[in-house]
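In response to reviewer comment 3 from the previous cycle, which asked for concrete evidence that the modeling workflow produces usable outputs, we include below a single protein chain processed end to end. The sequence was submitted unchanged, and the resulting structure tokens are shown without manual editing.
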Amino acid sequence: MKNKVVVTIADRDYTMVAVEDENYVRKCAQHVDQQLREIANSRISQADAAVLAAMNIADQYFREQDAAENLRRQIKDNLEEVNQLKMELSEAKREIFKLQNRK
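The workflow returned the following structure tokens.
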């Protein structure tokens, strides 16, 4: 179901239509508004501020993607290490069993 949500960005109201819930849409709009306000203090045109805000948001997005990919790699590496340790443990248990049965 699509939701219509009116948000305010840079003192202008926008009607957003989204499948996400209202709180999520408002959170996104607040983030964009905050980025615009930080840049707008530089006395540049609203269009230039919007482009710079979009660049900042894109930068944040790609940095978060890189961080997520690094975490995925770390998890994969850790899982491989866990599997290797499980195999070593299993081998050690077999060796202990053999040694105990020699007596």
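The mean pLDDT is 94. We consider this sufficient to address the reviewer's concern, and the full set will be provided in the supplementary archive.
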